[in-house]
Amino acid sequence: MEIKETTGFIALYSSDITTVETVAKSLDYNLYCLQVAGKLTALARVIANTPPDILIVDLPGNTPEMEALVRLIESVSPMPPILVITSEDSKDLRQVPSLQVLDAGEIISKPVCPGKLAAGINSLMSAGKRAERRYEKPVASLKDKPLVLVVEDSPFQMKVILRYLEGEDMDIITAVDGHEALKLALERVPDLVLLDLVLPGMDGFEVCRRIKSTPATSGVPVIVITTSSEQEDKLNSLQYGADDFITKPVDRRELLLKTGNILKRNKQLAALASEASRDSLTGLYNRRYMEYALKREMMDAASSELPLSVIMLDVDHFKSYNDTNGHPAGDVVLKSLGKILTATLRQSDIITRYGGEEFLVILPRTGPEGVVRVMEKIRLAVEEYPFPNGESQPGGRLTVSLGAACFPEHASDAAKLVDLADKALYRAKREGRNCWRMAGETSEIK
Prior knowledge:
The chain has 446 residues and is an alpha/beta fold. The protein folds into three domains: 3-125, Response regulator (Rossmann fold, 3-Layer(aba) Sandwich), CATH 3.40.50; 147-276, 3-Layer(aba) Sandwich (Rossmann fold); 287-438, Alpha-Beta Plaits. It is 44% helix and 18% strand. The chain has helices at 3-6, 17-26, 40-49, 63-74, 97-102, 114-125, 155-165, 178-188, 204-213, 231-239, 252-276, 287-304, 318-325, 327-344, 368-384, 414-430; strands at 8-13, 32-37, 54-58, 82-86, 106-109, 147-151, 171-175, 192-196, 222-226, 244-247, 308-315, 350-355, 358-364, 400-407, 436-438. Helix 14 packs across helix 15 (368-384). The chain starts with a helix and ends in an 8-residue tail after the last strand.
């Protein structure tokens, strides 16, 4: 079996050590990445960070936990294929109510047979059953205009709200019931939801609860609009996660003030999040963001059956340059190098300042042959750039050394991939500088 046919991320929900050990021992870790969650809060974090290709559920024995698990799984979009491990002894397991609710793709009874487990996983990973991944970026997007979702079933009230918001610096989408609202919220992820409490089918309380309990939308602020001025409704709104509330008839000044304040706060938070992911000197992504991005891109590469490469590069004799020309001149070199990399690489490539004079580049959809060409392109671009006082460097010019490693050829683990690229870089340093090396190889381009 080829790796590219089955590689994927598996999340296991179980607090039973025997089940966890059986599943862990049954998996081929060249093909699968496994993460275990023993509690629902942990499972929610796992799903939010990296949506799994398969979710394995050790069926809870108590009703409250089962109901909470169902609510969590219902909040995931798209829902991954589910393999259920159960102690039920029914002859027709698919008639068990809890299994019908979970819509299990595969069912295995305890004690778990490793062979049956492997067959079930392979079946779910086969063509047509692999869930499409939706990775959420860790940094909020700084949109030109914020997106506001208005949920209101009354045509008249909808018209009033839209008229009040007309001319404001925002884009607006609308929904007339709870199900449509949830669908739009997952598809577009608005910056704010204006939510009527009285809706057909699913009331505003439940819509608010689902928005706040769904990883992709949990951070979206919700302003509840209600016909009641009762304190109980207001308290219930807050209990279900609402950020604020407005009582009908809607006052235009109150509506604009509250929406404006929340959207302004969102913009400030987005700016802070963006700043936290950037290196202050070069403006490139920082190491913290790199670690997240590399994990995400590797999982995406495995799921989409595409290669991925990492380049580590370092400025040659940088300490000597700093000592000779001063640290401000060294900062200019680092900023210039960031601009060179940005101009040389694709928009889809992720360029980060790894630390000091080291930079790390993540190249999606790039294998060994491609990364060789990219490294040589970078090497030449730096060698030919007229850095100030570059003539004071050994060889009369400022240069870089580079090392690369590729997924899946060299490693299937993010930390190992970076380590191999780093070792290849230092081999380039030892073997002459101003050159590149590939993980596991010693040849240099001529």
